[in-house]
Amino acid sequence: MLKFKISGLLLVMTIILSACNGAGSGGDSYPVRYSKAEDKAISGGTVTYAYTAPFQGLFDPAFFEGEDDSNVLDFITEAMFTVKDDLTTVPNIASWKESDDHTVFTFNIRPGVRWHNGDELTVEDWKFALETIASPDYTGSRYYSVEMIKGVEAYHRGETDQLSGVKVIDPYTLRITVNSARVNTIDNLWPYPMNKKYFSGVAVKDMADSDQVRKRPIGIGPFEVKEIQPGQLVRMQRFDNYYKGKALLDGINYKVVKDSEITGLLETGGIDIGTAPRETFAALKELDNISLMQSPELSYEYIGFKFGHWDETARRNVMDNPKFTDKRLRKAMYYALDREGIINQYSYGLGKLIETPIPSSSWAKIADTEIDTYPYSPEKAEVLLDEAGYLDVDGDGMREDPKGQKLVIHYDAMTGSSTTVERTQAILQNWRDVGLDVRLNGGALKELNLFYEAVEKDDPTVELFNGVWGLASDPDPSGLWRATDLWNYSRWSSEQSEELIREGVGNKAYDKEYRKQIYYEWQKLINEEVPMIFFAERVNITAVNKRLQGVHVDSMSNIIEPDKWWIKEMD
């Protein structure tokens, strides 16, 4: 449940929350062929995709660390499986069959798929990628995507040079045996091959800095890299031996621009497509040559309560903070927030209220009619606080706790956009309006890394915190919600939640309708217990020049089947 695009467990905070302080300058112009028939796709032309932060240049799926590099990978690579708009995983290059006990998967890949250097893709390349990630010398963050494979622990410890759970049957057939049945094995299994011949002689520990990753990356996608200007520009051209047929465009230029430049460059045609910063939304709406495509981000913003701490020795969460024990306090704080008003005023209306941690685009999302939607209601908040014994005993306008002691709640949030300070003050004022003395911890917002260091290490001053989580296509809450999950930053768990999470990936869950009902029950539990306040599901804005056709966006990406993009004549 924690992957971003392609299984970026360690990326979920930095990808979604990092400030985009880009570098670079204006757009180039490129010769373009136009179609005289507006509705007929025609080959030719080059378009520019803009990004507003320098890229790192880790151009292999096993090693990239952020959206800055994954955007390039979406043009030059492809996975064995793909994720549809409804977040279900389906075959792409590989199809598969499962054994009756769901522990043996036999994959057949399509013959005739070519790497950009002309080599044919075989299952040896996929096996090589799995071995690379499982290696004790692997420096990336994708080990979790192979840890289900039989024998991987011994391989990872260096006790054997054979990954026993992976067997090549023939150049197009691979058999993978996993340790135990799990309904979402395919969703979690690493799906990207690496060209074994191309990496010949490169030690695993050196791969991330190798020319094969940094300077001359290759893939099997519709475009191939021709030039890299580090951190600023990647020029790609059509790969004519792409297994689905030639792309319509001649090429793609991936260009870094400044936030302040993006509106002007879109207006003049210096760039054609890119994710638009929220601050540019109002100005972009006024441009006649631009279409704004909206899609829900596969993420949610939340305000978490700290229920305890992480026990490093026991490797589990311990609920030992009594401050938020009373569910009525948590619910009151939910009702007291004018979430919709805050989104409209400080986030340009680019957000959708949510009440559970499963995204609206998921097949497992429960209907809002079946749960409490916690609408803005200071009156309900005050009733709940009164019932729970949080009363203004001394008449200063702020409530004391049920023992009559002064109640102060510390709130942590991160620096961010130009509206972040005002937005934070609005949130705090909502709670003060119902008599809760909630104060910004330390009197100031925290820089992203300092914020997450304090939250993850359970700094005792952190009591209430505003964060964002990126999600994967599969709705399994493992990784964020179990008692044994380090990233369960609220440190909340319950026996019922643990049982439902286990049941959601157990043998009965192979019946999708049964699995859906399990996740409905889990969401009802979370909705009733309120271990955190779910603030909003963010909306992603993609700005597209109207001359560029064939663009499709969903909650996973705005680079989907770029081989079908084409340019039409504009009046």
From TrEMBL:
Keywords: Signal, Transport. PROSITE patterns: PROKAR_LIPOPROTEIN. SUPFAM superfamilies: Periplasmic binding protein-like II. Coiled coil: none annotated. InterPro entries: Opp4A, Peptide/Ni-bd, SBP_5, SBP_5_dom. Residues 94-483 form the Solute-binding protein family domain. The keyword GTP-binding does not apply. Residues 1-19 form the signal peptide. Belongs to the bacterial solute-binding protein 5 family. This is Oligopeptide ABC transporter substrate-binding protein. It comes from Paenibacillus tianjinensis.
